[in-house]
Amino acid sequence: xxxxxxxxxxxxxxxxxxxxxxxxxxxxxxxxxxxxxxxxxxxxxxxxxxxxxxxxxxxxxxxxxxxxxxxxxxxxxxxxxxxxxxxxxxxxxxxxxxxxxxxxxxxxxxxxxxxxxxxxxxxxxxxxxxxxxxxxxxxxxxxxxxxxxxxxxxxxxxxxxxxxxxxxxxxxxx
Length: 174
Ligand SMILES: Cc1cc2nc3c(=O)[nH]c(=O)nc-3n(C[C@H](O)[C@H](O)[C@H](O)COP(=O)(O)O)c2cc1C
What we know:
Elements: E1 4-10, E2 13-19, E3 22-26, E4 29-35, H1 40-47, E5 49-54, H2 60-68, E6 82-84, E7 91-93, E8 98-109, E9 113-125, E10 130-131, E11 134-135, H3 137-140, E12 144-146, E13 151-153
Antiparallel strand pairs: 1-2, 1-5, 3-4, 4-9, 5-8, 6-7, 8-9, 10-11, 12-13
Flavin mononucleotide binds at residues 3, 15, 17-21, 33-35, 38-40, 64, 67, 69-72, 145.
């Protein structure tokens, strides 16, 4: 799964947490599953906003740090350089090639996690990671996380054309 960094404002301070349990609900809506004990939840509930940033492989150390320590005990506001878009309670990370500023659309109360549904309000992508105006994942080089074995990985090779390679199995009647 992709590792993300969720940005929040908690008690007037910027906070970042590593969050890998991320889903896509609609083309402009994403979910993050955040353990109820985390500090980030307070900021999301207070301001009804958060950011989802995609770190590249070279940010493994900083990303892992944001997943090891809690804003309850440590000030993580200086780990990255932050900027703000239109939403003034949504810190985004300069060093991350992609950042999404979200408005809280809904919250699902699961036993251990708050699942926050965010409507993407703005997307930022580094010019250096675009090809023909579109995000290029080879350039973004996202940091991937596998829970089993607790390892960080990087993207492998492109395998085939999606929505195309399967056509080879289609029968003429389909
Ligand atoms: C690679 C990685 C992925 C993580 N993914 C999640 C996740 O999806 N949900 C979650 O609740 N915690 C996740 N964590 C743990 C939190 O990032 C960690 O508990 C962090 O200290 C919470 O920060 P906060 O208390 O400042 O919000 C992850 C940690 C790592 C290292």
